[in-house]
């Protein structure tokens, strides 16, 4: 039996000793590179189903690949700890009922029964070895507990603490170190095998917590100096940064397709820089978020316990482990502004470069173009679509600081469009309301051909629709000014329900399970069941004509004309 594995130390769920493939107790367990273990026979059978001609084996739990040695599965390293545990459990199960396996002394070779344990040496001691232990001057200050005392302490530990302090890889080992390099809690075995010093900076829990508290205090102090309101905003800023990061990648990819193949390498380089910028910024935001949570916990608890410290360190691990190799630039550490949550892409028009990444938001006039536009919307590609008089459709595209008309169509399927939106498939959804005729909601494909249409209301004047919106799930909302209602439809036009919307006029937007509309004095937000969420005065916009509403998914904000107000 392996040293340290005793009847007293084997107190784990028997499920930990069962192979995940055959669901029986391990037989000749072998380790994969991902640290998961399986029976030798199970792995041999698994290899037959996974490209037998290759030297790779994919873990059925985490899907990570392991490169097999020359002698195949048989040559994988055996999990001697599991072997020892299975042997010990089997041994205990074979004992007569009521009889327990004795804990043997680990300090001598005389196979004497242990009566105590040295907490410093982590060895079980028989009576003679305990006396010798206490006689030596160098060991005089070691703490020795009897087996009865150890059992009493063990019985009083709560189940939650036992679960939170165990290593996932080595279930019988407690988490007692924090690797500051990997931002990860570790047990003693992991510290030896996976986090060797000096490559890794290991610290015990108390030291690691003190370091975290110092860093958190410093970060919170910097936040206060920046005069930036962070209460509840850091998580939202991270979400905004993540959303803008993905939109930036989409923008980069779209413009890349317009370039020649000789700038593909430039695309990869810029995306790598974008990822690095995102990771640096998100790591800084994660550090600040952890600092805020840490100081709040410290203020809440008058006395920090080991359980509190462990929970905070686990929280830090979750936030920062994936960013362990990312260095935050000094310029980002100086002050906290909203630009820390910003990332975007700016095109450069030449034969070599694809573009540059924007660290800060800068608003300005891109350009202007004269076009007959009664209605306006945009495609997912960024192209702008307008519908003018005589149902003429114009497609506009930004080219540097100019916006140019790239194509024009005359749509015969439209007669008098009064509202328009674009769904997630870039189909045009148009409210067509000819005079003295039944209004219809029409869906046009990318070639502006009619796919289908439906009639949202009757022919009487007080029930004619006045506005329209589409959300990210392609649900269609149709508003009725004179009825004070909104009808919610599936993409095929079938009615889902009718919602009360007092004061609705001709402007409406829809996103994130919410409908937003304006009346003469207020901006109102309701959910898809008609429950009012927000009502805000439009006093700031009274001097302007409200041309329309749109939803910025990255910022989770409603845009009214040129003014942006958070909802």
Task: Provide keyphrases for this structure.
alpha+beta; 28% helix; disordered N terminus
CATH topology of the largest domain: Neuraminidase
Structural class: alpha+beta
Cα gyration radius (Å): 33 Å
Low-pLDDT segments: 1-12, 157-163, 540-547, 561-567
Ends distance: 65 Å
Helix content: 25-40%
Would you state the CATH class of the largest domain?
A: Mainly Beta
Biggest beta sheet summary: 4 strands, antiparallel
Q: Which term fits the overall shape?
A: elongated
Number of helices: 11
Number of domains: 3
Name the CATH homologous superfamily of the largest domain.
TolB, C-terminal domain
What is the average per-residue confidence, as pLDDT, rounded to a whole number? 80
Task: Give the tally of β-strands.
Answer: 31
Instruction: Record the strand order, biggest sheet.
Output: 13-14-15-16
Q: Which strand-content bin applies to the residues?
A: 15-25%
List the quaternary state of the chains. single chain
Brief summary:
This protein has 567 residues and is of the alpha+beta class.
Q: How are the SSEs placed, and which strands pair?
A:
Layout: E1 29-31, E2 37-39, H1 40-49, E3 56-58, E4 65-67, H2 80-93, E5 116-118, E6 123-125, H3 127-135, E7 144-146, H4 147-156, H5 159-164, E8 177-179, E9 184-186, H6 188-193, E10 202-204, H7 205-225, H8 234-256, H9 264-300, H10 306-320, H11 330-334, E11 344-347, E12 355-358, E13 375-378, E14 384-387, E15 392-399, E16 402-410, E17 417-422, E18 428-432, E19 440-444, E20 450-454, E21 467-470, E22 476-480, E23 485-489, E24 495-500, E25 508-511, E26 514-518, E27 522-527, E28 532-537, E29 549-552, E30 557-560, E31 563-566
């Amino acid at each position: 039996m392996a040293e340290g594995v005793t009847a007293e130390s084997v107190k784990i769920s028997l499920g930990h000793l069962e192979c995940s493939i055959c669901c029986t107790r391990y037989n000749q367990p072998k380790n994969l590179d991902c640290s998961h273990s399986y029976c030798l026979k199970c792995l041999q059978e698994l290899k037959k189903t996974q490209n037998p001609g290759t030297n790779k084996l994919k873990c059925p739990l985490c899907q990570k690949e392991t490169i097999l040695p020359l002698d195949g599965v048989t040559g994988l390293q055996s999990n001697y700890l599991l072997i020892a545990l299975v042997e010990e459990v089997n041994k205990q199960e074979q004992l007569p009922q009521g009889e327990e396996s004795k804990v043997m002394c680990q300090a001598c070779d005389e196979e004497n029964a242990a009566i105590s344990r040295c907490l410093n040496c982590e060895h079980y001691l028989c009576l003679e070895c305990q006396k010798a232990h206490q006689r030596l001057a160098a060991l005089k200050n070691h703490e020795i507990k009897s087996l009865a005392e150890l059992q009493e302490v063990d019985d009083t530990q709560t189940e939650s603490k036992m679960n939170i302090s165990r290593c996932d890889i080595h279930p019988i080992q407690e988490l007692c170190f924090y690797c500051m390099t990997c931002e990860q809690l570790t047990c003693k075995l992991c510290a030896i095998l996976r986090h060797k010093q000096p490559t890794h900076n290991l610290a015990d829990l108390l030291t690691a917590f003190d370091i975290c508290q110092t860093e958190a205090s410093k970060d919170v102090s910097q936040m206060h100096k920046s005069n930036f309101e962070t209460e509840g905003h850091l998580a939202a800023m991270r979400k905004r940064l993540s959303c803008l990061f993905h939109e930036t990648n989409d923008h980069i990819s779209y413009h890349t397709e317009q370039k020649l193949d000789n700038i593909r390498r430039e695309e990869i380089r810029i995306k790598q820089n974008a990822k690095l910028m995102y990771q640096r910024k998100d790591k800084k935001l994660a550090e600040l978020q952890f600092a805020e949570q840490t100081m709040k916990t410290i203020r809440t608890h008058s006395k920090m316990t080991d359980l509190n410290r462990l929970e905070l360190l686990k929280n830090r691990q979750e936030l920062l482990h994936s960013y362990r190799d990312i260095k935050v630039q000094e310029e980002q550490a100086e002050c906290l502004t909203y630009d820390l949550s910003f990332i975007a892409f700016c095109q450069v028009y030449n034969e070599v470069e694809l573009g540059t990444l924007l660290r800060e938001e800068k608003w300005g006039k891109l350009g202007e173009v004269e076009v007959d536009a009664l209605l306006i919307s945009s495609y997912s590609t960024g192209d702008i679509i307008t519908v003018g008089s005589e149902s003429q459709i114009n497609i506009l595209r930004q080219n540097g600081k100019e916006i140019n008309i790239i194509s024009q169509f005359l749509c015969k399927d439209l007669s008098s469009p009064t509202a328009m939106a674009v769904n997630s498939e870039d189909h045009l959804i148009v409210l067509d309301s000819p005079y003295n005729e039944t209004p219809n909601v029409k869906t046009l494909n990318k070639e502006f051909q009619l796919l289908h249409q439906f009639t949202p209301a009757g022919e009487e004047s007080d029930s004619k629709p006045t506005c329209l919106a589409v959300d990210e799930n392609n649900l269609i909302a149709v508003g009725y000014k004179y009825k004070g209602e909104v009808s919610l439809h599936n993409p095929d036009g079938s009615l889902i329900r009718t919602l009360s919307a007092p004061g609705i006029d001709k402007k409406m937007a829809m996103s994130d399970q919410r409908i937003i509309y304006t009346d003469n004095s207020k901006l109102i937000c309701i959910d898809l069941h008609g429950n009012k969420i927000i009502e805000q005065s439009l006093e700031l916009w009274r001097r302007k004509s409200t041309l329309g509403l749109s939803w910025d998914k990255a910022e989770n904000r409603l845009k009214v004309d040129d003014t942006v107000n958070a909802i």
